[in-house]
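Review form for a predicted model. The reviewer records the input and the model, then writes brief findings.
Reviewer: anonymous (R2)
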Amino acid sequence: MSRNAQSGRRTPSINLRPVKRFKRPTGAAAFSGDAGGVGGSGGPGGSGSGKPRRPKRTGWRRLIPTWRMTLLGFASALVLGVGLFVLGITLVKVPDAHAAATAQSNTWLYSDGSVITRTGQTNRQNVTLDKVSPAAQHAALAAEDRNFYNEGAVNVQGLVRAAVNTAKGEGTQGGSTITQQYVKNTYLNQKQSITRKVKELFIAIKVDATESKDDVLSGYLNTSYYGRGAYGIQAAAQAYFGVDASALNPAQGAYLATLLNAPSAYDVATATAAGKQNAVNRWNYVLDGMVKEGWLPAEERAATTFPDVRDPQPNPGLSGQAGYLVDAGTQYLTSNNVISETELAKGGYTIKLSIDPGRQQALQDSVQAQLRDTLNPDKRKKDAAAQAGAASVDPKTGAVVALYGGVDYVKHYVDNATRRDYQAGSTFKAIALAAAFENDARTQDGRTVTPRTTYDGTSGRKVRGGKGTPYAPPNEGDKSYGQISLQQATDWSVNSAFAQLAQDTGLQKVKDTGIALGLPGNTPGLDPVPSIPLGAATPSVLDMAGVYATLDNGGKQITPWLVQSVDREGEAVPLPAHKTTQAISADTANQVTSMLQGVVTDPGGTGWRAKGLGRPVAGKTGTTDDQKSVWFVGYTPELVTSVALFGQDPGSGAQVSLSGVGGIDGAAGGQYPAQIWTAYMKAALKGRPVSDFPTPAGDDFSGADDLPTAPSTPSSTPSTSAPTGGPTSGATTPSDSGSKSPANGTDGATTGPTAPPSDQPTSQPTTRPTGRPTTRPTPTTQPTTDPTSQPTTQPTGGTDALVGAGTGTSSGSGG
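Model under review:
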């Protein structure tokens, strides 16, 4: 207490302490309640229960960006993309159109570097858009870019799709606008790459900004390639219709627009049957598009018919075989996406083929001597129907060393070596054998199929084990053979036995084996139907050479190739690798080869003429329904060669019978094709060491060694007994043996169009050999007469129909 000086009162004394200044907490502490107070740990009711602190990220969560980081990254990418786009627009210049659009010639070389020919003569005439008929303009738009006048320079969706496909190695799949295509045609090359696509994008944007739509369309029509060396719609109108572009009607304009998609493939004057149909389908698509867009009245569309197309004008540089070689080489390059047809037409390429000039000349000379020199179309109109095709392949590498496409490319434009519209006939039986051995086929009664397996060779015998109506194919000449071994059925080309073999193996397995051996999967007529082993499919001569090359190469398949190297201005163009695949086992290949030797070594075999080569030979003949095509595909250990003769009406192009060609009644693979094959192989292998085929594992029945020992012949009527060996009486053999007698009754070998090579047999044996192990029981006596003409009846359904479930194409004939 203290006393007040004035009042004298006593007052309590107060001691004042210094007050500490309160500081506001920062960060997490501001909310933790650590300083006490209400709700704090030190204040009333405080227990530290304020808003919890956000825990730090740990583990994989640290790898996930926050939304702030994501937004920042997106914005940065957008700015960078816009910047690069602007930079690209600024830096990429539109090239000189004239320099890029100038075509050069291509040089085609043989394998030794000598020149085959030079191509690339450019037919170009620019016209303004008002000189192109509106129908032709609308047709091009309907085909390529229907929204052209209402869109920008680039189809972004199509560009992305093309870039993805290119990166995946699948090539581009369209989607480009007409502006992009114009830029590609005029300023860039046709190389499919992302770099070229990026350049195309920037240049197209610049062109679209500086040129009108009409100018772009005019430029596109003037720079597009239409085939036949024609650049631009004016040149194309003259080449295909003989009119100016201003006079093109809707049908003609739609056809020219069709050609923009695939010029050579859609040229109906030279295309295969499938190519012609594809062209018509595309033509209809274009016209329907014109109707949809309001450019063509529906009534006029309904009355529009496919236009008449002129034949190509002869190009002296493609005469003889040169045109076929160039055509085949072009197909190889374009089908393998090495070079587009448009880019190739621009020229500047040096293309070396695998063709050996010596063997090429030998093949041409053999066809000339064995076939062409014996024909006289002025005297025998039938002779004008004969069309030959041949291909020779090195089985170890797959290289095509010789190719014969026809009499002259400027006279007959369809390449007979690569066309796929004639049946292969009994050459397909080699595939059936391979399928049976590779899949350990068993007969209907459970026996494992081997060369010794016995089959019923009765003509018209119903196949057992199938579904639906039994298939019952006749043999050539409706001849029956009774119970024969599979080797005999191969030598004599017995249809009834092979139809049952395919059923025993499985029809799908026969098809799959054909594809594995080298047939394209889309080969016309290659279906798992009962007729498949008789050659109802229509592979090319080159396709069949590739199949037999697989057999010759121990079952290792290499797709035949024709182009050895390509370069442009000193820069090599990459080519596809020659992939080797073990299609079937070496044991299977060797077993089939052994059996095919019997076709030649058996005096009654259908390919007996090829024995004149004087080397080990394996092969198979083929003769189709109505003898519209005849084949011989054969090989030595060093070389495979496929030869075919097709019957084609010189006026209409329709398939016709070869019977009567060269004055011979009937036609067979053992005649002209075997003679051409033998003459060529002698020249091609001259001076080369003689090699033997590998011996099959287990040294089972060998077609090369098991030669016949007694005469026999087929019966002209189905057998009523069950003989166990070959027929026993003497008459003529199936037509593929080459012994089908002319009208005068003399032997086919001596009355054929030309004499066989001097060291081969001069006549077909007059008796059919029994041909097999001497321990086999002999057959009962068969009728001794042979039909004097071809059978007049075919399986139910007509000459071009099959009998049996799942059939829908004509079957191969015998042999």
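Findings: The two ends are 145 Å apart (CA to CA).
Further findings: Confidence is low (pLDDT under 50) at residues 27-49, 704-810.
Recommendation: see findings above.
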